[in-house]
Amino acid sequence: MRGTIPVVASEETSPQLSTLRRFLQYVLLYRKEIPFAITLVLIGAITQSVGPFFLGWSIDRLIAQGNLQGLLLLLGLLGLNYGLGVLAIRGQIVRVGWIMQRVLAQLRQDIFIKIQSLPLSFFDRSEAGDLMSRLLNDVNTVNQAFGLTIAQMLGNSFSLVGIVIAMLSINLKLGLLSNLVVPLMIFTTSLFARWARARFRITRQTIGELSAKLEEDIGSVREAQAFNRVEMNIEEFDVLNAANRDANVEAVAITSAFLPSIDFLNTLATAGVLAYGGYLAVTGAATVGVVTSFLLYVQQFFRPIQILSQFYTQAQSAFAGLERIFLLLDEPSKLQDAPDATEMPPIQGEVRFENVKFAYNPDQLVLKGVNLHAYPGQMVALVGATGSGKSTIINLILRFYDVSSGAVKIDDIDVRSVTQASLRRQIGIVLQDNILFTGTVAENIAFGAPYATQADIEAAAQLANVHEFVTSLPQGYTTQLGERGAPLSQGQRQLISIARAVLINPRILILDEATSSIDTRTEALVQSAIARLLQGRTSFVIAHRLSTVTQADQVLVIQQGEIVEQGTHAELVNQQGVYANLYALQLGTADTTVLQN
């Protein structure tokens, strides 16, 4: 690929013109290949436009005078002419298609790069299915409009110019008569295109909504069946599907009415040439050959206009898709590295939150002045109700979001002053619902260290207590896993995710309910693996089962974005506060009045 296209401001232009300019920037990436393609287009256009002239000339100068030898020679020249035209047209289709497919591939690449680089706050308000629709459906729409017909459109544009010049040079009056319908065609095309563009915008929007619904329902089919939501999901999908169908029907109704309108104008012009040309031939003001040439030219004249007009209306769907694509590409990447960002040096593991405030929405603080200090090698447990701010603290350490005010520092270095990649490569994370990917077991373990050796992968698996299980699989470490790690159990996926964290050897480790939703035997293996993983590392552990954090060096109790209690397990139990009641609640001896307060 040739790199991403920079965003160019064009506030003074219309949205469609701005979109076209943005798209042409992609085409100009291949400017070295364009001259040859244009040359082929010109050759094809010239060969198509000179044919009717010589046919008309042969009627007046050869056939009328009985010059058989000259006629045969002319037919041979015309054969060579059209043969050259066929080769040129084929060449232009191949060459222009070559350029356009690379343009579209670059467009897909830029969309994927953009999606990968967008902050998590963008995905909080966006649906995966809609993003997939932009990458696949919208680009495919552009491909259908430009990738397959752009060569034909360019050829017909040049042919049209050549035909107009030839008609005006042969007979000025007939030429002007033939072109009288052009303003009507321009008006008709503009009118239909405006209607079609509005409808096609709706079709692109509805296909995005439909894709989002489809992606969500496929991913949750088990839950739908378990909660008897199948019929309701079908009804909801039917509504979205009908909306997309109706939008497409309206768009097709407009485009299907367009071609008959152009055909009517074509017939009108042909009738005008026949009537006026016949009159000129009868009165001797024009020869039969000239009239014949004009009739042929009129047919050629309207063929490219029909194709160009049809392309113009089809292009409205492509422009609607491009508008959605460029809106995504223009989405600001708020979490960019600072211009003077440096590489994070080897982390020792000290973490500080200095009066940190954070809000996902400007009017609602999630963290309200959090202060914490974790020393190198300490285990810090985060405890609190769902939505209290535990995961937000973790997200700020990883710099998935930037603080609204205050600072997050690691080894006295503000995380905003270093590159995100150098920060995150020294932090490991094991989540409650770890994602495994389609690929081998070895590839999943080496997800964060793709160049790790097989020996390193197996060593990490042994530390994570998963080596024995992996070697029992039919193909061992080369066993292929399906989507999200199928068919492994939750516990097996968790052990592989721990091996993934072991392999990158992080200085800071984050565990988010890493032992939940697994059986007792597997939990023992997971706990043993985590104990090895924690040694010598600073760790932050989110846990709802307080029995898993009794050995923590610090326990932070979070309520409504604030740390309300802090200390060791024993200290907090003795305080008889919120933590003590949470712990007692899990033991079945809680005083719920304290929790309610």
TrEMBL record:
Residues 351-585 form the ABC transporter domain. This is ABC transporter. Residues 36-317 form the ABC transmembrane type-1 domain. SUPFAM superfamilies: ABC transporter transmembrane region, P-loop containing nucleoside triphosphate hydrolases. It is a multi-pass membrane protein. Keywords: ATP-binding, Membrane, Nucleotide-binding, Transmembrane, Transmembrane helix. The chain crosses the membrane at residues 34-59, 71-89, 145-170, 176-196, 273-298. SMART domains: AAA. It is found in: Cell membrane. It holds the Pfam family ABC_membrane. Coiled coil: none annotated.
